[in-house]
Structure formats: structure tokens, C-alpha cells
Amino acid sequence: REYLFICDFFMVTGNSAQDLFNSIMGKSLTMFLKHMDAYVSDCYDSIAIFLCIHIILRFKTIMTKRNIPAMEKYWDTLLEMLWPRFEFILELNIQSIRNTDPQKLG
Prior knowledge:
The chain is mostly helical and 106 residues long. The protein is built from 4 helices and no strands. Helices cover 80% and strands 0% of the residues. Helix 1 runs antiparallel to helix 2 (14-41) and helix 2 (14-41) runs parallel beside helix 4 (72-99). The termini are far apart. The model has no long low-confidence stretch (mean pLDDT 91).
């Protein structure tokens, strides 16, 4: 909504709208990315990370339908942060199952 407001209020389109959006929202988005990176690096909740990935993919679809390119790089950065961590956690879970001795289970 912020992108559309900026386009309407300042009567800009294309690259100038993108540049204006980045100058207004850039610091906030960068700060959020730093916090997400810190959180994801210590997170071992595969379901939470998978849900975040799914929500981001939904938001990307919505933004594409509405023809709003402003957040594309932001969503891609988040996905680049979340997918490797999700894969790492799944590998840990698989390794844990392989190492489990069924005889020791109740």
C-alpha cells in the first residue's frame, strides 16, 4: 500500500517510484532483514521457517498480481535467507532419525 500511495501522492512511476520507495522504506526494511538474519541463524523450528517461506511466496504472488515491483528484491532476500536454513534443519532432523536406535525407544 505504501508503494501505491507514493506513486499516487508524488505522481511518479517506474524507476523513479522505486527509487523514492527505497529512499523512504529502505532503512526500515534493512533493519528488519538484519533482525530476521539474527533470528533465523538461531532458529531450529522447521515449521516456523516453512510457514515464513510460504507466506513470503503468497505475498510475492499478491504483489505480482497487483503489479507492485517495489518489494521483489526484499522478498527474494528473505527467501535466500530462509531456504538454506530450512534445508539445514531438515538435514539435522534426517540425521537424528538415522542415528536413533529403535531399541532405545519406549
